Amino acid sequence: MSDARPGVYLALVHHPVRDREGATITTSVTNLDVHDIARSARTYGVARYYVVTPIAAQQALVRHILGYWREGSGGDRVPTRADALSIVQETPTIEEAIADIARREGARPTVYTTAARPSADMLSYADGAAQLRARTGPALLVFGTGHGLADRVLAMADARLAPVRPDGYNHLAVRAAVSIILDRLFGDAGA
Predict the structure, then answer these.
(1) Which helix (H) or strand (E) covers residue 79, if one does?
(2) pLDDT band at 177, cuts 50/70/90?
(3) Where in the chain are the domains?
């Protein structure tokens, strides 16, 4: 496990995201995304992983999953899973995640968005890793479900990271993309 990197946060957004036609939608929380992204985030020293959904039933599902692993028998059986899930927090909006980080850190985070679609203003992983190493304040890495983040979330970005594969097949599971991107930014090659 890597050293903790206080000040680096991650958000998985379920709303507002796009459907295949580009309309704004809300996607469902999946148990695998909660678990697997928490494990990757914990491995790379992320301070907190926000699961962003405005749907009360989905928020309750996240709390149920976390309760089982933090206070329930799951944590007793697999303590490392409880450790990974200790950094997860459900929140209804990306704005509330940003506000929570600002309260914790005393400063608004630099927001980095991700997308599977290339854009003219995208930041390479080498440049992103260098910025994150040199940062003086908190940073938030934002990932989208469905067919990607809605334009209003992309507009919040201070920087937009390049797609995992800017010129090829680009339909990874979000948990795979998160792991790849965390490794590119914080792995040994990015150090």
Answers:
(1) helix 79-85
(2) very high
(3) 8-190
Tell me how far apart the alpha carbons of residues 13 and 29 are, in angstroms, rounded to a whole number: 9
- From 96, 119, 125, 122, select the one nearest 109 (Cα to Cα): 96
> Whole-angstrom Cα distance, residue 132 to residue 177?
18
pLDDT digits over 33-89, tens only?
A: 999 999 999 999 999 999 999 999 999 999 999 998 888 888 788 888 889 999 999
Residue 155: CB atoms within 10 A of its CB come to: 9
Tokens of 175: 């948990």
Distance between CA atoms of residues 178 and 37, nearest Å: 7
What does the block give as tokens for 17?
């995201």
- CATH code for the domain defined by 8-190: 3.40.1280.10
Q: Determine if the pTM surpasses 0.90.
A: yes
Contact 18, 24 (CB under 8 A): yes
Q: Which two tokens mark 118?
A: 């290339």
Residue ranges in 44-77 assigned as alpha helix (H): 56-70, 73-77
- Amino acid residing at 152: R
Strands (E), the chain: 8-13, 17-18, 24-25, 48-52, 88-91, 110-113, 122-123, 139-144, 159-161
